[in-house]
Amino acid sequence: MGCGGGTLFYPLLITLSVALITYNIIISANSPLKQDFPGSSTSSSDISIDPVIELPRGGGSRIRGKRTRLFHTAVTASDSVYNTWQCRVMYYWFKKVRASAGPGSEMGGFTRILHSGKPDKFMDEIPTFVAQPLPSGMDQGYIVLNRPWAFVQWLQQTDIKEDYILMSEPDHIIVKPIPNLARDGFGAAFPFFYIEPKKYEKVLRKYYPEERGPVTNIDPIGNSPVIVGKAALKKIAPTWMNVSLAMKKDPEADKTFGWVLEMYAYAVSSALHGVSNVLHKDFMIQPPWDTEVGDKYIIHYTYGCDYDMKGKLTYGKIGEWRFDKRSYDSSPPPKNLTMPPPGVSQSVVTLVKMINEATANIPNWGS
């Protein structure tokens, strides 16, 4: 059942948030942020650099003699047609995969954090928390800045039963049951090749000063997919919000990080709070570059998939056959998308099959 959650407190929260955001933006324009963000009692310089590891082939993570460590899956979204159809597909597969996992599964509840400020007609289909967007103009046209602010509201106003959170995205499709990969105070995250803290150390030192330790303490991650302890995320989220806003306000950081600015902000904020992450390169795949699903847990369909009718990838050129989520920004994809031609990679074939199954079974698809 969808829930608005905390509606009576929205005016107070917005007032407090504007004051907090304005204060941080003012100081960010003139000085480093180190004095404004709480850190862990453990020195970040004592945290070892995390290896990139393969996920356990068994797929399970329940340890004999210990209780299952449930995590709650949370997805932020706007009320756009584009975000909404992706959320509906994502939630369909979340439910089906969780049901298939059986006893001992560590997949707990699910929440769409809707940062439009008002309920939509899918509240009863997808468990939903309605968050307020940033004040008008605060995101400077970069709508992703609403993500950390939405998480702050959700974490503060909702009684989340699980002890861990999986931060996911609308364009994720869960392929098989996900175990709780977080361990011993470490989060679990997917490493992105384009998040390069060492390369951009000069800019990042504004937000992660030298006394915090080497810049390699900043993991090459975004906020998703990440599994992290709920208590840790409650500390990280306000910092993530403020660092994101400060970076967007900083012309050098904004130009350097561009569309991945909010990802860098999360990585910095996690490091500021002493939360390191074990990096799982098998957490997800990204077709068409990753050609096999294999033992991965998530398909992330962020890239367009373009092929000729011989099954050859024509990336950079619109193919004779194509699937690109951006083709459906104003209306959902139709049922029964045409399957790719012979020779197209297994990951792309699986993606289209899974979208077709979801649209065939979700009630009132296209409404």
TrEMBL record:
> Gene Ontology cellular component?
membrane
Listed A to Z, the keywords are: Glycosyltransferase, Membrane, Transferase, Transmembrane, Transmembrane helix
Do you know which Pfam families this protein is assigned to? HPAT
One GO MF term = glycosyltransferase activity
Q: Which InterPro entries match?
A: HPAT-like (IPR056508), HPAT/SRGT1-like (IPR044845)
Supply the name of the protein.
Hydroxyproline O-arabinosyltransferase 1
UniProt domain Hydroxyproline O-arabinosyltransferase-like: residue ranges: 71-365
Q: Where are the transmembrane segments?
A: 7-26
Localization, UniProt: Membrane
Topological relation to the membrane, as annotated: Single-pass membrane protein
